[in-house]
């Protein structure tokens, strides 16, 4: 097998597999079906966006993939193992709300590194502080940081444990539009250097088309997968190209139909 | 110029106190019936107590009782409250009992305290314990309940076991609220000790006040006792407040 074939084979390996997953929430005798027969296969190193109307079940699906919820029926496998709970190989980024306010920037990034020897830990902390551009803020506490900085901090904390997968739930939703643009660029840069598998929830169509290899368009609740759109535009993407606009408009139409259902 | 105005601003509270003291002295001297001793009389009273060795003795006695009652309450109530808050069902089951016990002033327990422990330190410590236990328990329950699920989930996600999860996520997340609860409760304990000492023991600042009145109407000593109680209460509060300034706790006290 040639090197190119080996690379191809590994990049086509299935990283995450969602098989006939349904989720029904029961509360006070009333049951709400939220996910209905979701099937999805994510390749190693792939960047997938989940896109759908508000309240359709994107967060629920992501929580199930991350191991925080177990599906009512069906199963989720990561690296062919059934997902039973959260795992450091798959880190969930909870918008900026997940950083620990009682730890400094350094403390947060080092949080998941408790098994490493001290020198190695410090090296990694320094490396990721630099990667996300938080130099000079090592000793700062999160309340002293801006929203975008906290977001980068949380991403750095996730990357520091060297996970295979990242789950991001509308990570840039709370940021202003300029910071959001910058953060998308940063995320792509990090993804290109580290080649993690990324599942990214958004309800912003442009964001999905700018970032993802594939966009999973979901219907209104109970969510089903309406369509999976391949975004066959190489990075960096020209957001005024005809292909970009075409893909965006087709997804726009899909979402419009999804809302009506 | 700026420096001078700054000092002016800082001195303002002291200037106000000085003015009030002068007004108090004038008022005390002008009235013929001795309704209240003047500040000068109070200073004499404090000096008198110090000379007889009672000042330090009574302060130590009161602080001793507060320390024990408060510490015992904290050691029991905080772990218990945190556990109850963590398990929501336990909280729901206990809530009615707590709500009935809460409005009962710890002073209502004085007869029972004396019945059980006799007149002495133990009765006073017991009363302070009672007065501190419930507020601390409620603080701890609320603190545990309000830990955001994101923090716990993030901790679990990074592979923390139960012990690490408690020490590295749960505990730091509740500390700021606990400190506020401890500060307020210490204030309550200080109120309770004075009342308890008026009835249940023969020493301490509360005893000083009641004794000064009973044994010869020494109102200068009564007010001296009040002033000392106020100053010590203030110092205790300042001590606890300084904990709120620790950098890794400060996030819990949002300025907005
Ligand atoms: N624990 C729960 N118990 C009951 N219902 C729930 C629970 N969690 C979520 N739901 C319901 O499931 C539906 C989907 O919620 P979810 O948070 O997954 O939506 P979403 O697609 O992420 O929405 P948004 O874009 O607004 O974040 C909602 O109607 C919500 O009310
Ligand atoms: Mg959501």
Fold and architecture overview:
The complex is a heterodimer of chains A (261) and B (256). With 261 residues, chain A is of the alpha/beta class. Chain A folds into two domains: 1-89 and 164-172 and 193-261, P-loop containing nucleotide triphosphate hydrolases (Rossmann fold, 3-Layer(aba) Sandwich), CATH 3.40.50.300; 91-162, no CATH class. Chain A is built from eight helices and ten strands. Chain A has a six-stranded mixed β-sheet, with helices on both faces. In chain A, strands 2-1-4-5 form a four-stranded antiparallel β-sheet, covered by helices on one side. In chain A, helix 4 (118-131) packs across helix 5 and helix 7 (205-211) packs across helix 8. The radius of gyration of chain A is 19 Å and the shape is globular. Chain B has two domains: 1-36; 38-252, MetI-like (MetI-like fold, Orthogonal Bundle). Chain B is built from ten helices and no strands. Chain B has helices spanning 2-30, 39-51, 54-86, 88-101, 110-117, 121-145, 149-157, 162-199, 205-214, 219-243. The mean pLDDT of chain B is 88. The A-B interface holds A 66, 68, 85-88, 90-92, 94, 97-98, 100-103, 111-112, 114, 141-143, 161 and B 148, 150-151, 153-154, 156-160, 164, 168-169, 172-173, 175, 247-252, 254. The complex binds adenosine-5'-triphosphate and magnesium ion. Residues 25, 27, 32, 34, 52, 54-60, 203, 221 of chain A line the site of adenosine-5'-triphosphate.
């Amino acid at each position: 097998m040639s090197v190119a074939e080996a690379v191809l084979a590994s990049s086509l390996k299935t990283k995450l597999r969602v098989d006939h997953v349904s989720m029904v929430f029961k509360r006070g005798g009333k049951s709400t079906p939220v996910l209905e027969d979701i099937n999805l296969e994510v390749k190693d190193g792939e960047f997938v966006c989940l896109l759908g109307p508000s309240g359709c079940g994107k967060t629920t699906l992501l929580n199930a993939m991350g191991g925080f919820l177990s599906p009512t029926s069906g199963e989720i496998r990561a690296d062919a193992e059934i997902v039973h709970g959260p795992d450091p190989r798959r880190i969930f980024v909870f918008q900026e709300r997940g950083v620990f306010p009682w730890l400094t920037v350094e403390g947060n990034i080092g949080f998941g590194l408790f098994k490493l020897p001290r020198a190695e830990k410090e090296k990694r902390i320094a490396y990721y502080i630099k990667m996300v551009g938080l130099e000079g803020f090592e000793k700062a506490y999160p309340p002293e940081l801006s929203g975008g900085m906290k977001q980068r901090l949380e991403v750095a904390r996730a990357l520091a444990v060297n996970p295979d997968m990242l789950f991001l739930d509308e990570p840039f939703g709370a940021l202003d539009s300029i910071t959001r643009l910058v953060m998308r660029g940063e995320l792509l840069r990090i993804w290109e250097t580290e080649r993690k598998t990324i599942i990214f929830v958004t309800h912003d169509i442009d964001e999905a088309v700018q970032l993802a290899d594939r966009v999973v368009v979901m219907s209104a609740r109970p969510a089903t997968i309406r369509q999976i759109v391949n975004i066959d535009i190489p990075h960096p993407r020209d957001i005024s190209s005809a292909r970009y606009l075409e893909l965006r408009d087709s997804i726009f139409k899909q979402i419009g139909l999804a809302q009506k259902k | 110029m700026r420096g001078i105005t700054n000092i002016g601003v800082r001195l303002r509270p002291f200037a106000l106190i000085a003015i009030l003291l002068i007004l108090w002295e004038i008022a005390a001297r002008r009235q013929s019936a001795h309704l209240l001793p003047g500040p000068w009389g109070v200073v004499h009273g404090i000096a008198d107590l110090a000379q007889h060795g009672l000042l330090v003795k009574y302060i130590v006695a009161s602080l001793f009782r507060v320390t024990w009652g408060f510490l015992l309450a904290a050691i029991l109530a905080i772990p218990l409250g945190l556990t109850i808050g963590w398990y929501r069902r336990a909280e729901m089951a206990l809530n009615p009992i707590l709500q009935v016990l809460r409005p009962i002033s710890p002073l209502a327990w004085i007869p029972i305290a004396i019945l059980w422990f006799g007149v002495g330190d133990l009765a006073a410590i017991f009363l302070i314990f009672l007065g501190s236990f419930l507020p601390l328990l409620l603080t701890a329950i609320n603190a545990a309940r309000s830990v955001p699920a994101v923090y716990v989930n993030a901790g679990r996600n990074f592979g923390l076991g139960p012990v690490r999860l408690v020490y590295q996520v749960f505990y730091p997340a509740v500390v700021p609220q606990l400190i506020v609860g401890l500060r307020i409760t210490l204030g309550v304990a200080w109120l309770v000790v004075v009342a308890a000492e008026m009835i249940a023991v023969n020493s301490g600042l509360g005893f000083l006040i009641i004794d000064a009145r009973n044994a010869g109407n020494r109102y200068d000593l009564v007010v001296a006792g009040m002033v000392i109680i106020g100053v010590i209460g203030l110092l205790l509060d300042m001590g606890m407040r300084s904990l709120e300034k620790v950098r890794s706790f400060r996030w819990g006290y949002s300025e907005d």
